[in-house]
Amino acid sequence: MPADPERLPLNALRVFEAVATHLSFTAAAKELGVTTAAVSAQIKSLEADIGVPLFRRHTRAVALTQDGAELLPGVRRGLDELRRAVERLRRERVGGLLNLSVPSEFLQRWLLPRIGEFARRHPEIEVRFGPARAALDFERDDFHAAILYGSGQWSGLRAERLLDEWVFPVCSPALLARLGPIETLSDFSRYPLLHSRAEPWPDWLRRVGGDTTRTDVPPQPDDASATLAAVEQGKGVALARWSLVAADLSAGRLVRPMLPSVQQQSSWFLAAPPERFALPKVVRFRAWLLDCCREFPPPTGETLPVE
Fold first, then answer.
1. Are 76 and 66 in contact (CB under 8 A)?
2. Most buried residue among 63, 154, 263, 297 by CB atoms closer than 10 A?
3. How do 193-194 and 96-101 pair as beta strands?
4. β-pairing, 237-241 with 193-194?
5. What is the CATH number of the domain that holds 187?
6. Tens digits of per-residue pLDDT, 97-117?
7. Strands 158-170, 261-272: parallel, antiparallel or unpaired by DSSP?
8. Strand ranges (DSSP E) for 106-233?
9. Is the residue at 3 inside a domain?
């Protein structure tokens, strides 16, 4: 059967390059980890395939023919490009870009203050963040993984729980000093309530047994960062997720005027198509992220379980 002109005998070309480099069948065999007879057979097959002799064989030496010398530079360029392509793919699996979809409020208030440690541990991985989307398409958006807030059930994705979440009231220290402590739920009447679709007051008040009918402030857009910025400016008291305000509470930018916190049905998850969890760079990020989450304790004070 004649040789297929479209087929490149890649293994034979690799053997040819090794023999041409060493000008020795024996040395080439040693480099490739095969027998000298196997090297000789590959060269004979390549010469038959191309239709010209590539080496002049002498008793103790091997020399390139004119055709062999003309072929060698192209073979070397091709093999070098193949090696580089394979190495790029290997590096991409282990390092290179790690594209993550992360909600902006979680990114700004929880993840970014910690990500420097990951960069120090894994300088071979460059993390890039993209916005959260209502419907993630990992192929179209080129994300390797996502951090999502929800039930943990997303079609076609594997989800691993990172953090449970609690909600409680927060306000500025100045507002608390001016309006006085909140010792009972009725004390909330002194405070303007900042509403958010993400953390609605009626749910929290119903869980702690308070008045669920107050609607003195229109709902704000579903943007936790904007709501918390208004809280820091002393415009009122709002409900906040523990993960988003822990650093602000620790730094004294915000305070908790009343301690009961209510655990949420939703949690934070690392999610991706199942096969993405096997990527070495995702494996390394996941391990680091889980360590961070284990070091992040739940809020202090009375905690009410999820209903």
1. no
2. 263
3. unpaired
4. parallel
5. 3.40.190.10
6. 899 999 999 999 999 999 999
7. antiparallel
8. 125-130, 145-150, 158-170, 193-194
9. no
281 and 238 in a single domain? The answer is no
Structure tokens at 259: 């301690």
Residue type, 203: D
Residue 46 has φ and ψ, to the nearest 5°, of -65, -45
User: Residue 1 domain-assigned?
Assistant: no
Helix (H, G, I), strand (E, B) or coil at 58: coil
pLDDT of the residue at 218: 56
Give the Cβ contact number of residue 293 at 10 Å. 16
251-287 burial code (b ≥16 CB/10 A, e <16): eeebbbbbebbbbbebbbbbbbeeebbebebbebbbe
| CB count in 10 Å sphere of residue 195 | 20
Neighbours of 300 (CB within 10 A): 10
Please check whether residues 182 and 250 belong to one and the same domain: yes
| Per-residue pLDDT tens digits for 50-76 | 899 999 988 778 899 999 999 999 998
Please give the C-alpha separations between residue 218 and each of 170, 175, 192, 193, 201, in angstroms, as whole numbers. 18, 20, 11, 9, 12
Q: Give the pLDDT confidence score for residue 1 in this predicted structure.
A: 42
SS (H, E, C) 61-82: CEEECHHHHHHHHHHHHHHHHH
Q: Give the structural domain span for 186.
A: 165-264+300-304
In terms of domains, do 175 and 253 share one?
yes
